[in-house]
Automatic annotation (TrEMBL):
PROSITE patterns: MFS (PS50850), PROKAR_LIPOPROTEIN (PS51257). Keywords: Membrane, Transmembrane, Transmembrane helix. This is MFS transporter. Its main location: membrane. PANTHER family: BLL3282 PROTEIN. It comes from Streptomyces bohaiensis.
Amino acid sequence: MTDRSAVSAPGRAPARAWPLTSLLTACMAFSMIQLFLLGALGPLLVDELDVSPVVLGLTTTIGFGTAAVLSPLGGRIVDHVGSRRSLMVLLLAAGGALALIGSAPGPGLLLCAVALGGIPQALANPATNTAVLAVVPAERRGAVLGTKQSGVQLGAFAAGLPLAALAGGLGWRSAFWAAAVGALLLAWGTWRALPPERPRRAAAGVRAGYAFRGMVARLAVFSLLLGAAIASVNTYLTLYGVRALSMGATEAGVLVAVLGVAGVVGRVGWARVARPGRAEWLPGLLALGAVGAVAMLIASRDVPPLVWVGAAGIGLLAVSANAVTMVLVVQRSLPGRAGHDSALVAAGFFAGFALGPPVFGLLMQAERYGAAWLLVACELAAAGVVAVAWAHRDRRAAAR
């Protein structure tokens, strides 16, 4: 199979791989760091702002619901204006959302700020994937994509360790303000580092519109189920550690850091081996494997140290599956469609992130911890079955 997306974007100057990879990784980190901070610092916000666990779950629902709605439009905008301008909007919106959360006097402004944070989430995958297609040779894209996708988990690590430690010393608001300053500094660096570009035109014969077709539709459904499971873990793992396992707030916040580090390792590693013919099977197998990690979280009620094993397993397997889906999109997107296709798959993922936490939060509030984690296991199992079934059908169709 020829690589249909190997065409470089006209007008884009070549860039060295590692500086570009580092920049895109940081942009991915800032696209979602506000939600990781809300998860890591959830116990502090629940106490100071007088919000319930259900309202805490609504922060994820609103943020990712906004991202899911905006993603199709965001993908088309990226294809039209290019990755450089799109990344600037991403970082400025992320900085504004972080600053507003740090200033929120109560749940109202908090939820509005989280909605603003849906903009960088909607732009992140289309903008960064388009940049990779434009300047990275086809044979190196898997490694670069895996590394830049790991930026999301680097954001989780930053939220769960250094920023959580800063919150422990100076208060939770200082952590959000520090992250906001970092986003603005990265925006300045991005504008200076990336050369101007001329957007690519869509390939001839490709019909415009938001219709879900072929592999994009399959990955969107898979991503919806996967996102529902991952979002519940991201949002409530810290609170579970505090309430169910009697951990301190800072120690429980480190669970998010463990999840983040494992996600970085998994995303980089699995994306490197996601070559055509193999990549189609990986998302389903990773999701099914993650069911075992959830079993560790269930067992942690009786054996608390297993919570660390479960957190690492979710990062290595479930979180990494999302990176492989983006590798598949880049491998198969037609020239000029990478932003749009990436956005449609991301919309499914974000929709799952919006739908998962509210139900989990209700079970958490009722202290039905086993049932809550069983829900996550069922979501992962369903995602795995869907992906494996479609991969099997693709193999049979190719053999005819």
